[in-house]
């Protein structure tokens, strides 16, 4: 079941709905209408969005599009609340028909999904994954923001590749990307509920939900075959989102600045130690005593040994443990000894590192 929160999207809504309606399989054959439904909720719009949606519904009666409109109080009139209402509705619909394995898929009203979007989401979930994050590709990125956006993508792509080598994940093998956000996010009903559901907050609700998914060790697949094309507009509808990021990058260009990120040397060390800690975690209830191994990891991460040991045995999930570790690293000696560096320089070191790896990597 696909959910689409919409507010004042009359200019691009038809493109969004066309993309959702004209879904095909790997052979280019249109998907059967019974495979998926679309729930679209129009909130607090002042344009023709609702009219266009209902008109579209009448024009294509075979397309399982459900349209609703709601006027929320000002404090609740934001995408986090609307996405929560929609995902909860999808969850309750699946629950009412006894389908805990049902899949809830989120996109946005300013985005157009790839023609194979549904097909590859279903394929990835069928392989045992709980979550599928799609690659989000902006359209017509503003010129002033472009270089910083490309650097950000390059850095995150290289980091994802590094993690796949040093701390591999069976659910998310290489090739993969680095995104798992609202414009293209699929979750099973079971994992949606287990993660505490998407929080109804004014912005970055998808980022907080992503963290919650990793916190409970959900099997997250960031599939390069699942793609969505989204707006790169500068005038957004939330206090912080992609539009604000584009504005900030544009200002950085004007001020001849660039983003600073964690250096490769620190990333290699941290990711390697994360992998070691994960292996210990998997056998933490066995007879093996991990005291010396934990001491070694805590020293290399510049963490208090007693603190790490306590969290290691207290946390229910590895993702929960690692989130706590990363918070400590950012606030403690680790960050002081591994100062951030200009992103362009770090990307160069990444490229050199990968060029020197065996071809199989």
Automatic annotation (TrEMBL):
What Pfam families does this protein map onto? Glycos_transf_2 (PF00535)
Which stretches make up the Glycosyltransferase 2-like domain? 2-151
Superkingdom of origin organism: Bacteria
**InterPro entries of this UniProt entry?**
Glyco_trans_2-like, Nucleotide-diphossugar_trans
Protein's recorded name: Glycosyltransferase 2-like domain-containing protein
């Amino acid at each position: 079941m696909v959910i689409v929160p919409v507010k004042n999207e009359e200019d691009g809504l038809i493109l969004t709905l066309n993309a959702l309606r004209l879904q095909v399989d790997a052979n280019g054959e249109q998907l059967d209408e019974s495979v998926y439904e679309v729930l679209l909720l129009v909130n607090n719009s002042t344009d023709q969005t609702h009219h266009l949606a209902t008109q579209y519904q009448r024009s294509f009666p075979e397309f399982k599009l459900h349209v609703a409109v709601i006027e929320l109080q000002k404090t609740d009139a934001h995408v986090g609340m609307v996405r929560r209402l929609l995902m909860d509705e999808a969850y309750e619909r699946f629950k009412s028909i006894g389908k805990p394995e049902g899949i809830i898929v989120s996109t946005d009203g300013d985005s157009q999904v790839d023609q194979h979007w549904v097909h590859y989401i279903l394929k990835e979930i069928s392989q045992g994954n709980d979550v599928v994050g799609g690659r989000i590709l902006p359209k017509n990125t503003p010129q002033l923001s472009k270089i910083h956006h490309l650097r950000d993508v390059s850095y995150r792509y290289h980091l994802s590749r590094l993690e796949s080598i040093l701390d591999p994940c069976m659910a998310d093998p290489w090739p993969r990307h680095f995104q798992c956000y609202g414009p293209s996010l699929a979750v099973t009903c079971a994992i949606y509920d287990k993660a505490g559901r998407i929080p109804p907050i004014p912005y970055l609700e998808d980022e907080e939900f992503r963290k919650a998914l990793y916190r409970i060790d959900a099997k997250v697949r960031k599939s390069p075959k699942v793609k969505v094309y989204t707006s790169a507009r500068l005038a957004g509808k939330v206090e912080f989102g992609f539009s604000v990021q584009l504005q900030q990058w544009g200002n950085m260009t004007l001020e001849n600045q660039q983003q600073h990120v964690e250096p490769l040397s620190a990333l290699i060390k941290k990711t390697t130690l994360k992998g070691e800690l994960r292996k210990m975690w998997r056998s933490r209830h066995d007879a093996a005593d991990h005291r010396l191994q934990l001491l070694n990891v805590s020293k290399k991460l510049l963490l208090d040994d007693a603190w790490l040991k306590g969290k290691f045995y207290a946390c229910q999930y590895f993702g929960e443990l690692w989130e706590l570790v990363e918070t400590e690293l950012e606030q403690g000696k680790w960050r002081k000894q591994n100062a951030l560096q200009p992103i362009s320089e770090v990307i160069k070191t990444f490229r050199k590192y990968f060029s020197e790896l065996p071809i199989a990597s």
